[in-house]
Each structure stands twice: as C-alpha cells, then as structure tokens.
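By way of example, we now present a protein record of this kind:
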Amino acid sequence: MSTENSPPASDGASWLRRFVIVEPEEVAALLSSFAMFFALLSAYYIVRPVRDDIGVTLGKDSLHQLFTIVFFVMLLLVPLFGFVAARFPRRYVLPAIYIFFASNLVVFWGVMKSTPDNHIALATFFVWGSVFNLFVVSLFWSLMSELWSHAAAKRLYGFISAGGTAGALAGPLITQGLVRIFAPVDLMLVSAALLIAAMVASLVLRRVRPAGEATGGEEEPAGGGILDGVVKVFTTPMFARIALFIFIANVVGTFFYLEQARLVAASISGNAERVLFFSGRDLVVSIATILIEIFGTARILNRFGVTVALLALPVTAAVGALLLSTDAALGVVAAVMVAERITSFALANPAIKVIYTLATPDEKYKVQNFIDTVVFRGGDATSGWLYSWLGGGLGFAAGTMGAVALPLVAAWIWIARQLGADHKRRVAESAAPS
C-alpha cells in the first residue's frame, strides 16, 4: 500500500516545487490547507459585494455607526469564544463555528428574500458580515499556526495564502456571473455551501497532517481562562505591537474604505452597477495578489525577513494618503485600495501569521482571535468616527484626512520595525536550548 502511494506523493511534491518548497510528506496537508482557504474566501467574496452595496445603500452617515456596533458585538463575542476554546477540544471548535455561520446565511437569505427593503435586516446583515469574515478567517489561521511549524510557515504560508486569494478571485467571478441571472441576495446560499466545503476540508486536513507535527493534542481544549487573550495582548510586548499594527492598519484602511463609499455613492447610481464595480475591484486585487503569493511571498520572507514584509504595508499606505490628499477622485481611491490590499494580503498578513507560529496553543487561538476581531474592528470604529468628525462629507479633498492619516502611518512604520525585532528575539529564544 505504501509503495503504491509513494510515487504520487513524490510526483505531487515535484510539481509543487515549481511554486513552493514542500516536502513529500507535506503535500496532502498543504493541498488541504489551500483548498480550505480557497472555499472559505470564495464564500466570503461572494457576499462581500452584497455587503458593500448595503453599505452604500445605508449611506456613509450610517457606516461609522455600524462599525461601532460591530466593535461592541466583537467585545461580547470574545469571552464567549474564549469559553468555547477553553472548554472544548480544538478539533471541534472550528467545524462547529463554521456550521453556525453557514446556517446564519440561510436565515438571512430567507429574511431578505421576503422583505428586501427591510433596513433593519440590511443593517443587521452588514454587521453580521463584518463579524463573520473576521471570525472564520481568524479560526483558519489559528488552525494553520497549530499545524505548521515556524520554519514550514515561512516556506508554505505564501502558497496557502494563494489558496485564499484564488478563492477571492473565484468569488467575484461567481458573483459577476450569477448576479446577471439571480438576485444578489440569492448568492448567500452559494456562500453557505462553500463555507460548509471549507469545514469539510478542515476535517480532511486534521486527518492527513503527519503525526507529531501538530503542537499539542487536538483532542485537548486550548485551556486557560476566557479572557486570557485580552490579558496577554496588554501584558506581552510582542502581542501588544501586533495589536497596534493591526489597529492602525484598520484605521487608515477604513479611511480609504469610507472615502470610496462616498465617491461610489456620488458616481454610480444603480445597485447592480455598484456590485459589479466592487467585484471588479476585488478581481484586480486577487489576480495581482495570487501572483505575488505564489512567486514572491516565501522568497521575500526567507531572503529579506519578516520586518521588510511588515514595513511594505505602512509605506504603501503613506503613498496612498499623499495621493488622495492631492487628488480625491474615485479612480485614485480605487487604485490606492487595490495597492493597499495587495500588499496586506501578499506580504503583511503572512508575516503576522508566521509570528503566531511561535506562540503557545492558547495564544494561537485566544490572542489571535482577540486581535483579529476586537482590535481589527476597533480600528474600523475609531476610523469611522474620526472620518465623521473631520468632515467626511468632503473626504480627503478637505485636507484633514491626510493630516490625520500621515502621522498615523509614521507611527505604524515605527511599530512595524519594533515588531520585526520582537520576532527576531522570539526566534532566537525558541532556538536556544532549554
């Protein structure tokens, strides 16, 4: 049996080595990780244009209030997730939460299909969608950091990220094809099916991952208290800097998002046209990102290190803020958001996830979840209120947005450098003999 199965594994490794440095025994787990992230982000990017269109429909004045609601919802969910992670075996946490979110999509489809002009349902879905994407992606990366070592992550995370980007590429293509035939709300059912497929892929991954590679027993809970993740973010310098990096990234990124919403509302009138605009933008991001992830991410992480990958994002944002301060047009903000997202997905995000591989199982689930949800949406809420207070009706054209964004970006660059130094110290500590 093993003799018959050896050649395919070798052939698979040989084929994959054109794109990624992978060992023969890692092939099945790597492809399962790729497939899981593909299905997961396909599910999200199918409903993302629907969520963005709802944001435009509700208006920019409502968006910053919705982001604040999302932040408080996250605050309520973190101790609940901490309880689940501390009490239940890790192998069951992710599948149960994915099934829960898939059933939510079916419920939203039924409500919005029967009452399409229900603004309460629309606002609720916008909030839900903003919670959904962070929780499911955070859980995916918690699983990755549990199963892959630090050295393997630097080799393989670029390729695994490319699976998500391929899903982000497939999602808009599916959306653009189906929105001409079905109502946008019907896409929720397709998204639910893909989320279930991601859950199934996670079960396959648990089975094919080579024995002895996972950190800790998967039948064991993460352990600890329900607020351990919160405490460690405020007491561990490395995690505090990750939190600040993510927080500032979202403050600046949401400035760009709200500016885009303002300009789209002023320039594009029809719902279907707006959905096509958003999905088309995501398509451009996905094509560029997947090329970098397959051919560049691992090389950059291994040759130049985590620090360079982290710095790429605030430097890109600084250039974008300067451009928007001089020419606040829809084409400019779309180009800035495309560049910012490519850099984030292809470089900064994999670099952050590599750092998490050096954490304990408890930290990989609880700290990562708190930062990826509460801190992430805290940046959204803060940015939304700042945008409103600083005259968001004029956006970057008023000059005040750039005046706030540029000092934030400068602080962001400093934090990226410090976080890179934290990573180097943690690597040295993990390599030192006990």
The first helix runs from residue 2 to 16.
